[in-house]
């Protein structure tokens, strides 16, 4: 059981979920193959990371006199600053909570590594302070499946719980003999493992659009849900197009049986009637280019890069060739890089050119912007490769001296990625692309697997 390259993702996810955690907890939904009640992520990965986070939070509070008991009484200065957290009513639980079906042997092996994982998290640069000062009760997972029976009148009020629940809901079928449902029963076809592959099923609906129209989607019911999604997506597309933003027409490619069940034919575009716009419905941030500390390196979307100020050169990682007006030649490089979901080595093949372009410009003191279509994945991973290749561990440009003198490890990779995410708050680096960066830094000697 090795520490995953993107182990920091649980920290990023918790930052996003902190708003919900402060309101009493959150819910995570996932599934796995037939015949298995819970995926490994819910059985072991999430319980491990909740325990690790609880330990890191306790260590932080103890270190700064914010963790109950004698130390709390000795630290009156913290109380005067308003930082002391009242924890007298319960103890901060740092024990490992695993479901009953995880064997005692596995439990022992996991518990032996908890302290090491906690130290790795603490030195990764993750913002433990924000979570420690905001979270009032320790995290604890609860498991819900299709076989779970809950008597609502016997569930205590969540305010009386001495922990913050992370409710793990598995939608997996408990029986391996359950036959595949046909499209005549539902308008969708379940694909195992597609939870993080939203472009294959989300029909152009982004997370922000979903939450803005969640009740409309729920109330529309299964018969008109697809039409409601299409209306929402097209309305948002027209809104962005009217403001000169990148807003391509969304194409849908449903299952082969769709034409027989009254749904959209294959590759049919969303042809919708004009919809009235509410000009205040969505506010776009025109200055969402993120500068990474004092490194002269920035990251953002290709659309915003065209009008970005204070930029001397641009490294575009978009499939479409974009033109930028710079007086000096060689100030723009376009690399057509696709996600690891479509090409496992596209990023790896282009990283040497990307790092060399960055080196030639950064050594002249120029300010470099790295951009891609979303500004959340490929451009983030290119920045990660540049920081690891050309900067020391203090963020100073050294043209690669540290890289030549030291051996790259996953911990340092996580530290640099956490550093990037402190500035690029919308970063969502994919596992496959981070693995390609790690392989590049190791000289291409690390196999890239799914």
UniProtKB/TrEMBL annotation:
It comes from the Eukaryota. Residues 250-261 have a biased composition (Low complexity). Residues 244-271 are annotated as: Disordered. InterPro entries: Prot-tyrosine_phosphatase-like, Rit1, Rit1_DUSP-like, Rit1_N. Residues 332-441 form the Rit1 DUSP-like domain. The keyword Transferase applies. Residues 22-234 form the Rit1 N-terminal domain. GO terms for molecular function: transferase activity. Signal peptide: none annotated. The keyword Transferase applies. Keywords: Transferase. This is tRNA A64-2'-O-ribosylphosphate transferase isoform X2. It comes from Solanum pennellii.
């Amino acid at each position: 059981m090795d520490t995953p390259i993107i182990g920091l993702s649980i920290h990023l996810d918790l930052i996003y979920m902190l708003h919900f955690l402060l309101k009493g907890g959150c819910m995570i939904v996932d599934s796995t193959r037939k015949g298995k009640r819970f995926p490994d992520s819910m059985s072991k990965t999430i319980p491990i990371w909740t325990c690790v986070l609880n330990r890191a939070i306790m260590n932080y509070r103890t270190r700064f006199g914010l963790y109950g008991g004698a130390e709390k009484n000795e630290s009156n200065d913290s109380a005067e600053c308003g930082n002391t957290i009242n924890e007298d009513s319960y103890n901060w639980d740092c024990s490992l909570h695993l479901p009953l079906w995880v064997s005692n042997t596995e439990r022992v092996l996991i518990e032996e590594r908890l302290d090491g994982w906690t130290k790795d998290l603490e030195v990764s640069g993750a913002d433990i302070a924000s979570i420690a000062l905001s979270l009032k009760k320790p995290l604890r997972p609860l498991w819900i499946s299709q076989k779970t029976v809950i008597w609502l009148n016997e569930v205590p009020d969540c305010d009386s719980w001495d922990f913050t629940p992370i409710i793990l809901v598995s939608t997996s079928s408990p029986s391996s003999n359950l036959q595949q449902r046909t499209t005549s029963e539902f308008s969708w076809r379940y694909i195992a493992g597609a939870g993080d592959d939203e472009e294959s099923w989300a029909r152009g609906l982004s997370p922000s659009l979903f939450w803005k129209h969640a009740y409309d989607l729920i109330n529309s019911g299964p018969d008109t849900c697809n039409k409601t999604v299409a209306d929402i997506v097209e309305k948002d597309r027209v809104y962005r197009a009217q403001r000169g933003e990148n807003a391509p027409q969304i194409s849908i490619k449903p299952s082969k049986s769709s034409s027989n069940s009254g749904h959209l034919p294959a590759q049919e575009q969303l042809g919708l009637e004009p919809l009235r716009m509410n000009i205040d419905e969505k506010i776009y941030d025109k200055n969402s280019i993120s500068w990474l500390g004092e490194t002269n390196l920035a990251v953002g979307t290709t659309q915003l890069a065209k009008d970005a100020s204070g930029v001397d050169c641009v490294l575009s990682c978009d499939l479409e060739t974009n033109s930028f007006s710079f007086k000096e030649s060689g100030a723009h490089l376009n690399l057509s890089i696709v996600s690891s979901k479509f090409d496992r080595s596209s990023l790896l093949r282009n990283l040497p050119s990307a790092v060399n372009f960055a080196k030639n410009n950064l050594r002249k003191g120029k300010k470099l912007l790295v951009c891609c279509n979303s500004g959340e994945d490929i451009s983030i991973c290119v920045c990660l490769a540049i920081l690891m290749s050309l900067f020391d561990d203090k963020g100073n440009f050294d043209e690669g001296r540290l890289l030549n003198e030291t051996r790259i490890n996953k911990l340092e990779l996580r530290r640099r990625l956490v550093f990037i995410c402190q500035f690029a708050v919308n970063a969502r680096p994919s596992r496959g692309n981070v693995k390609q960066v790690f392989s590049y830094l190791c000289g291409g000697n690390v196999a890239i697997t799914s």
